Fold this sequence. Notes:
Blueprint: H1 16-23, E1 27-29, E2 36-38, E3 46-49, E4 64-68, E5 74-79
Parallel strand pairs: 1-2, 3-4
Antiparallel strand pairs: 4-5
Amino acid sequence: MPLVVPGIQSSDGSNKEEWSNKLMGKKLGESHDNVTFAKADLPKEHRVLKPDSMSTMDHKPERLNVHVDEQGTVTNVRYG
């Protein structure tokens, strides 16, 4: 297993890659299964962004931004 040092491998020391692995290609729902991730298990600081949705431009390094497509499938995960 590779050594991971926060702030060196990632610019903000976040665990974005871990969240990407958990969420990419899944839908958000009430429980877990092969194609769904439970919303309740997202970090406290998060927001789900749909296509063409408006969002504030404030930068919060601890906030997980989950981008979904028209069908509700996760397409991108980032912090900020």
